[in-house]
C-alpha cells in the first residue's frame, strides 16, 4: 500500500545513459503518485570521467544541487532518491555524513527512501569506488533510510531481449558474481542488484536498460509494476 507522501523524487541515471532516457519513468511516476520528479542531468562526458574520485564528485555535486532545488521549489524538508544501475551505488555514497575527498554530502539528513534499479551492489569483481561504497556502507547502512532494491529477471534467449543481451549477459553475470548461470536483467545478476537487508523486489521479464530489450526498469508498464510493490517510509 503506497503512503500518500509529498516528497519530491530525484532520479540519477546509469552509466552513459543520458537524462532524456528517464522521461517516461519521470512522467509515469508523476502521474501515479502526484509527486514532482526531477532527473539529474548527467552527460556522457560526465560518465566517462566517473572512473575517478573527481568524476564521482562531479556527479554527486549535481545530485546535491538538484536536491537543494527540489527542496526549495516544493518547500519540503525530505526527498526520495531513485538510482538506476551505477547511479544507485553513487546515491548510497551520497547519503554519507562522512567526508569523501573533503566533501560531505550528508544526503541521509534530507532523504527518506532510496530506490535502486538494477544496481550492481554486491560484486566479486567491481571498480575500486564501487567496492569502497559496498565495504564502507554495506546493505541498509543508514538506519533512518528506507532502502528498496529492485532487480530484473529475464530469459536471455527470449524475444524480450536484444542481440546485445544475448551476446553479453552470461559473461557479465560471471564477471559480477562469478556465476554465469545466475538469473538477472541481462547485465546485472540478482545476487548483485538485490541489496542486502533492503526491501527486495524481483521484476520478471525486465532487462537492464533500453538497449537490452523491450521492457526495462524505466518502461511505463515496469515503473507501474515496481512502484505498486514498494513500501515507502
What would you note in describing this structure?
This protein has 233 residues and is an alpha/beta fold. It has a single domain, classed as Alpha/Beta hydrolase fold, catalytic domain (Rossmann fold, 3-Layer(aba) Sandwich). It is built from eight helices and six strands. The protein has helices at 23-33, 44-48, 53-74, 86-94, 128-136, 163-177, 190-193, 220-227, and strands at 9-12, 37-39, 79-84, 111-117, 146-153, 199-204. Helix 5 links the parallel strand 4 and strand 5. Helix 1 (23-33) crosses helix 8 (220-227). The model has no long low-confidence stretch (mean pLDDT 96).
User: The CATH topology is what?
Assistant: Rossmann fold
- Beta strand count: 6
Number of domains: 1
Based on CA atoms alone, the radius of gyration comes out at 16 Å
The CATH superfamily label reads: Alpha/Beta hydrolase fold, catalytic domain
Beta-strand content estimate: 5-15%
Assign the CATH class: Alpha Beta
Tertiary shape? globular
Helix content, binned percent = 25-40%
Q: What are the secondary-structure elements, in order, as H or E?
A: EHEHHEHEHEHHEH
Helix count from the secondary structure assignment? 8
In CATH, the architecture is 3-Layer(aba) Sandwich
Poorly predicted runs of 5 or more residues: none
Task: State the end-to-end distance.
Answer: 11 Å
The overall pLDDT, averaged over residues, is: 96
Largest beta sheet, briefly? 6 strands, parallel
Q: Structural class given helices, strands, pairing?
A: alpha/beta
Assembly of the depicted chains: single chain
Question: Strand order of the main beta sheet, please?
Answer: 2-1-3-4-5-6
Amino acid at each position: 500500500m503506497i503512503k500518500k507522501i509529498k516528497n519530491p523524487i530525484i532520479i540519477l541515471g546509469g552509466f552513459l545513459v543520458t537524462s532524456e532516457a528517464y522521461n517516461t519513468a519521470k512522467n509515469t511516476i508523476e502521474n501515479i503518485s502526484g509527486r514532482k520528479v526531477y532527473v539529474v542531468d548527467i552527460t556522457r562526458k560526465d560518465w566517462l570521467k566517473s572512473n575517478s574520485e573527481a568524476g564521482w564528485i562531479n556527479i554527486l555535486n549535481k545530485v546535491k544541487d538538484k536536491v537543494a532545488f527540489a527542496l526549495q521549489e516544493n518547500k519540503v524538508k525530505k526527498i526520495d532518491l531513485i538510482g538506476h544501475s551505477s547511479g544507485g551505488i553513487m546515491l548510497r555514497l551520497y547519503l554519507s555524513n562522512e567526508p569523501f575527498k573533503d566533501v560531505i554530502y550528508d544526503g541521509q539528513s534530507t532523504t527518506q527512501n532510496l530506490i535502486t534499479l538494477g544496481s550492481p551492489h554486491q560484486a566479486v569483481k567491481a571498480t575500486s569506488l564501487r567496492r569502497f561504497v559496498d565495504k564502507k556502507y554495506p546493505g541498509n547502512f543508514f538506519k533512518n533510510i528506507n532502502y528498496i532494491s529492485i532487480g530484473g529477471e529475464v530469459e536471455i534467449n527470449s524475444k524480450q531481449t536484444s542481440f546485445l543481451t544475448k551476446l553479453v549477459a552470461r559473461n557479465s553475470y560471471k564477471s559480477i558474481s562469478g556465476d554465469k548461470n545466475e538469473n538477472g536483467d541481462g547485465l546485472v545478476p540478482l545476487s548483485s542488484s538485490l541489496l542486502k537487508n533492503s526491501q527486495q523486489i524481483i521484476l520478471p521479464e525486465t532487462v537492464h536498460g533500453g538497449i537490452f530489450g523491450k521492457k526495462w526498469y524505466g518502461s511505463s508498464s515496469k515503473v507501474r509494476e515496481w512502484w505498486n510493490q514498494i513500501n515507502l517510509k
